[in-house]
Amino acid sequence: QTKTGIALLYDEVSENAYDIRLKLTKEVLTIQKQDVVCVSGSDHSANHRTVTLRRQPVGGLGLSIKGGAEHKVPVVISKIFKDQAAEQTGMLFIGDAIIQVNGINVESATHEEVVHLLRNAGDEVTITVQYLREAPSFLKLPLGSPGPSSDHSSGTSSPLFDSGLHLNGNSTNTAPSSPSSPIANEPKYEKRWLDTLSVPLSMARISRYKTGTDKLRSNAFEVLALDGVSTGILQFYTAQESADWLRAMSTNISDLTLQNMKMANKCCSPSDQVIHMGWVNERFEGADSSHLYKFKFLALKGSSFYIFSTPPVSTLDWVRAEKIYNLCEVLFKIHKLWLADDCWLQASLYLGIHQDFDLEDQRPYCFSVMVGHGKSHYFSVELGSELAMWEKSFQRAIFLEVQRTGSKTYMCSWQGDTLCFTVDFALGFTCFDSKTKNVLWRFKFSQLKGSSDDGKTRVKLLFQNLDTKQIETKELEFQDLTAVLHCIHSFIAAKVASVDPVFIDSQSIARKYMYSN
């Protein structure tokens, strides 16, 4: 399925936008620009065409022009009138920049100067033209055929006026005695959409934000290939068009990522499969306490959560990750979502572990991954569907890792004694002496009724004694308390999921949002 459509390519330096055509296939996004090509006859370059026009008594030269040096653009043909001199040559097109008039160079002439020259050039006017491939959109030139007939320029007036070099009479009255018609062996020209850039979508990334900032582009985004080649900023005429293209490209990128994962998983053992991977933006604090964002590539594979600056392409790349964390010891948390009425909802999915974030940025789909020693990573994605996918994938990867691992044991201490604390998927919690291995106490997951910690090393776990129904408090000290609390959370969540999978799904804020939309 190929999707095509007209968009604008925005140039940040000149602040001009140019008409382009997009062609999207499963694997490639192609950008096309219009140009005039020689389709038969002489094979010389269509770059410069010299055409002689015979001024007609009715209709004049049969064209209008726009632009000029005062607008920092060449003078271009903006209209060609049916059955009049310019059209009959078959060699002139809307969008042609006029380079010479009767041998006089007009590339840096003003609009009025070119109008004056053309009006006073006699009955035979020889003009040299070159098609302006990057005609700024403010010229409001109709795109015309070929391609989709969505003429976005119609109905909108340009700040530049058209100077009509034709009389307003109807050319149907009398045929001119010597029409400017093409001769049989002369070259034939056509205006066509030509491929100018192809961006492979495998491992590509999309950004709707101005580089590194929270500033959302209006109805625009750019696509960056794995090798860093950018489409430039693609601008759309409506929010709906922008959303449709964003969704279509994201879907194709996701499908290709899935293919890459399947390929990678053929080389990995069943316990080391890739569950999910993809591009995100990670937030960092700038020097002036502003937010900076950098692209990162995340992967959930086997027992680990990986953060890369570039995607892993070969098996060796997996050891080159910037950060690697054990999945049992991380906590995934959704931050906020923009809802239909434009208010945002802060989602405290996992109660009991709170971390306050400054939520003033303008990125709607954010999540953080809390890791050991109280640290965390804050990420944003482009679409709500991506956020839901990361939430689901983290749950799945963590539950699989808990079931594979079965249990985790941490060294801890209390009142000078060195102890071991084990979280076990089948048995619950066990505390034993590290030297004698004597079990000091054991409780099931269902007996844990609450906990509190000092935010540093010490935790109080409150268990209910099954016989007496009394609450027993157990205090322990850990070197990395955060990792242990995350591990307890992972094991309990996995236990709940194994007993009642529907409950876990019912807790998904991101997916509730997706389905309500």
Please give a structural write-up:
The structure is a single chain. With 517 residues, the chain is an alpha+beta fold. The protein has four domains: 3-37 and 193-238, PH-domain like, CATH 2.30.29.30; 42-134, Pdz3 Domain (Roll); 268-355 and 363-402, PH-domain like; 406-505, Pleckstrin-homology domain (PH domain)/Phosphotyrosine-binding domain (PTB) (PH-domain like), CATH 2.30.29. It has seven helices and 29 strands. It has an eight-stranded antiparallel beta sheet, sandwiched between helices. The chain has a seven-stranded antiparallel beta sheet with strand order 11-3-2-1-14-13-12, with helices on one face. β16 (291-301) and β17 (304-308) form a beta hairpin. α4 packs antiparallel against α7. Mean pLDDT is 84; it is low at 145-159, 167-182, 338-361 and 513-517.
Count of alpha/pi helices: 7
| CATH architecture tag of the largest domain | Roll
> Can you give the helix content as a percent range?
10-25%
Provide the structure class.
alpha+beta
Domain tally = 4
**Number of beta strands:** 29
Mean pLDDT: 84
Strand order of the largest sheet: 18-17-16-15-22-21-19-20
Global outline: elongated
Strand-residue fraction?
35-45%
What gyration radius follows from the Cα positions, in whole Å?
33 Å
* Poorly predicted sequence stretches spanning 5 or more consecutive residues: 145-159, 167-182, 338-361, 513-517
Q: Output the CATH homologous superfamily of the largest domain.
A: Pleckstrin-homology domain (PH domain)/Phosphotyrosine-binding domain (PTB)
Q: How far apart lie the N and C ends? A: 25 Å
Please name the CATH topology of the largest domain: PH-domain like
Describe the sheet with the most strands.
Answer: 8 strands, antiparallel
Question: What is the highest CATH level, the class of the largest domain?
Answer: Mainly Beta
